[in-house]
C-alpha cells in the first residue's frame, strides 16, 4: 500500500503516472483479495475526502454563503455534537458570527441554509410556499409521524389541514373554556393540593417536576377533547405510559438527526432497538384502540357526545366513497397528540419559571386575575378570557417569544430558488429557520430583546378597558413561534386559551417555589423545547387570596 501511495505521490508527469499505474497493477497481482479491497476502499475514501474537503458527503460547495468550515465528509457534525447540551447555542453562536444567513452541512440531512430574518422566513413560509416541502426524505421521524400533517405536502397535507380546521370553531372554544380546560386545570390543582403537604420517605420536603405535571395535563386534555381517550396521565395510578413512550421517541428522532448511521446504530445497540420497538408499539396501541372503538361505536353513543377531531377524520369520504385507512388515522392521532401536548405544557413550564424569577410580573398577573375573576371565581368564559386579560396573554406570549416550543424548524427545497436577499437555494437544500433566534434579535425586537418584558405586547389607547392596555398582536414572521403562512399552527387559539385557563386557575390558587440550588433551565434539543432535566418546585396554596 505505502509503495503505491508513494509512487502516486511522485507522479508529476503523464509518463511517471503511467509507470505508477503499471507499478500498481504489478503490485496488485502479488496481493491477496483482502488487501486489494482495502486498497480500493482507501482510494475511494481519499477521493471522497478530496471531493468533499470541508463539507458533508453529497453536498455542493457554497463559498458564497458564510458558515464554519466543516470536516471532510461529515461537515459540521462534530461541531454540532459539541453543542449537544444546548443545541440552540449553536444557532445563536452562528448567528452572532455570520449574521442572519449562514450554512452548515450534516451527513444525514445534507446542506442547510439557515435564514433568521422575518423577511426571508416570510418568503419561504408564504410567498414561495409551493417550492418547499415538509415531508421527511430521511425517514427519521416516519415510525412516529408516518404521513401525518407535520410531514406531508400537497393533497395529503391539504386533506388533513382542511378536515382538522373544521374542529377549531368559536363554538368549540366557548365550550372548552367553560368545561374541558377548566376541569383539567382543577384536576391539576387537586394534585398540587396533595403535593403541598407531602414529605418524601426520607423526611424531606417534596419537590416535583412541574413541567412533567403540565405535560400530563395537556395530554389528558387533548386526549379527551380531540380523540376521546382517557390517558389518565394525571391520576397517580395512570402511569403516564403513553407520555413516556412519546418523550422517548421525540428525543430519539432528534438524536437521529446527528447520527448518519442511526438505522445501523439503533439496530446494533440492542437496548435502544428494544426501547424504540416497545415505545412505537405503545403509541400504536393507543392509536389503534381509539380508532377501533370509534369505528365500533353505535349511532346512539355517537349522538351522546360532542363531535371531536377523530370523528372528522373517521367520517371523511373521498370522492369514490372510501374513507381513511386505520394507518392514516393512526398518523392523524399521533401528529395531533404531539402538537397538542408538548408545546403548550413546555411553554407553561418556561413561563412559571420566569414568574418565580420576576415576582413583580407575577403580582401584576394576579392583580389582573383578581379584578376580572373576583373572590377566586372560576366562571371563566371565552369572551372574558380573550378580551379582558391582556396582561396574562402578554406574559404567555413573551414566554413564547423567548422560549418557543418549536425553536428550530425547516423545509426541504423542491426546486432551485433565489431568496429576496439574493441567496441561491439548490433543490434538496434544507432551509432552516429559528423562532428562538429571531425572538432574540435586537433589530427585530429592540435593544431589550433578551429581556423578559411582557409590556412589549401591550398598547395603551383610550379604548382599552383594562388598566394594562390592549394586547398588541405581532406579525407572524417576526413572532414566528406559531409558524406563518399556509402552515401556520392550527392550534394557536386552542393553545392560548388552554394556557390562559391553566395560568388563571393556578395563580388564583397556588404559588411555586423553585428547589434550592436548581440550575438555570437550559432548553433541551428535542423536537420541541422542554427544560432539560425538568423544573423542580414546591407548591403552596395561596392563602392570602380572594
Ligand atoms: C404554545 C403552543 C403551540 C405552539 C408554540 C405551536 C407552534 C407550532 C409551530 C411552530 C408549527 C409549525 C411546525 C413546523 O412546521 O415545523 C405548528 C404546527 C401545527 N400545530 Fe401548533 N403549536 C402549539 C400548540 C398546538 C396545539 C395545542 C395544537 C392542536 C390543538 C397544534 C396544532 C398544530 C398543527 C396541526 C400543526 C401543523 C400545521 C400544518 O402543517 O398545516 N399546535 N405549531
TrEMBL record:
GO terms for molecular function: heme binding; iron ion binding; monooxygenase activity; oxidoreductase activity, acting on paired donors, with incorporation or reduction of molecular oxygen. GO terms for biological process: lipid metabolic process. Heme binds at residue 489. It holds the Pfam family p450. Its cofactor is heme. The keyword Cytoplasm does not apply. Belongs to the cytochrome P450 family. This is Cytochrome P450. It comes from Linnemannia schmuckeri.
